[in-house]
Amino acid sequence: MERDNSSSFIKGAFILGAAGIIIKILGAFFRIPLANLIGDEGMGYYQSAYPIYLLLLVISTAGFPTAIAKLVSEKMALGDRYGADRIFKVSFIALFIVGITTSSILFLGAKTYSDYFIKNPKAYYSTLAIAPALFFVPIMSAFRGYFQGLQNMKPTAISQIVEQAGRVILGLALAYILLDRDLEIAAAGATFGATAGALFGAIITTFIYFKYKGNSRAFKPIGQIESTNSILKKLLLIAIPITIGAAVLPVMQAIDAGIVMRRLQDIGYDENTANSLFGQLTGMANPLINFPQALTAAIQVSLVPAVSHLATRRAVSSLYKTIEAGVRIALLIGLPAGIGLVILSEQIMVLLYPLQIESAINASKILYILGFGVIFLSIFQTLTGVLQGLGKPIVPVRNLFVGAVIKLILSYILIGIPELNVKGAAIATITGYGIAAILNLIYIRNYINVRFDFLNVFLKPTISVIAMAVVVKLSYPILNGTLGSNKATLISVAVGAVVYGMMLLVTRTITEEDFKLMPGGQKLYRVARIFYKK
Fold this sequence. Notes:
There is one protein chain. Helix 13 (394-415) runs antiparallel to helix 14. 85% of the residues lie in helices and 0% in strands. The chain has helices at residues 2-48, 50-77, 81-117, 124-130, 133-149, 154-178, 183-213, 228-266, 271-312, 316-343, 345-352, 357-389, 394-415, 423-447, 454-483, 485-506, 512-517, 521-528. It has 18 helices and no strands. It is mainly alpha-helical. It folds into two domains: 2-452, no CATH class; 454-534, no CATH class.
């Protein structure tokens, strides 16, 4: 049973991770052409609507999927399918009401937000366009939390892909159609893609649920039926701390938007130039940081029900192994992704934004700094999933709050230094993530006395990444001299990936057991087992 649960965690993470890759690829097909289409000024209007949207989205949904997943997982561990279904139904009604409320707040308050809070009046239409998405996303969240509690990640993965596809197709189409009218209107059209995608995602999750659930009347309650008030109380006790923690980042981003715009203007930049620099930070560099984050977020989501299940059954040995596996996989993803972005920051930006070369080169300096933040963010996300599964959701909230406060203080100070300007925000960001990750790690080690294998979890992945970095650093100049920058960049990335994969096998960082837990891993192991011969 314990082994199966561990296997479910790994497979769930792979399913969501694969979906995350597809989503980020679709996102790249959206943001990169969009940035080339509307430039950094248009991206400034587009991105300005997102901080308040994400803040309200977090308030309305962030804690509930995790809370639903945890409570459903606990019911399933006790064999109570009736209780699990009841938790979902109560949650759905609550999130439906919350969705109506938050979407109305943003729609009615769009003018105040754009004119007075962020001092970017032309972001008004983008803010209006994204408001209806706040109604549909909570509906998706209820379904996703339910299926995650059953440790079935496929519905979540499918709905995420459908949501992103709708966002990309309609968002780009509207931006292109509306570009002749006005740049701010085109940005609003792109933003409306998020609303369309949320609608499509809500439709597909509803369809999957009714197809999957079968005859719910066949399930009989075990013991006394839990009251609605009791379920809501349990949901809120878990969801509120998680929501507060998740709200820290959007709050930080919303305040950061105001700080960046104001501080840049304080040191002599006009409103349009400040908006363009903000667009380079949030619209061009940040999306690349979010790409590997999709994989580590999948680990976090999968860890919550898996850790909760094992903790409920008091399976201590399997619990330790699952936590260590989560951290190790997060580093296997975060280390190469972060270092790769650092080494090839300018080359990657020029490759992706060929129609905005000057902005791309400027944004590459931001990406160089943010690349290091990928490593800290990977560790923080994974350990947050562990703590949520252990019933300690307030701990990562506190730790992230500490990191966020330090980030905001540093942002204000560093952006005000003319030589750093918007790069100061990037430095502050990685500092905040680093502090939050270290605090999470210290707490987990002290709370459950888990000790990570330094050699396998930290040292071997680091050695593999160093080898990758050396090869990429040496290969790019040689390839650039004969093939040109873009081809050299692509080939260097591919060579780096191959070298990294080989080093993971040579150092035995990936074990035979890891292959067995991967979907289709047995076939991969037949190819890789040459490295495991004694």
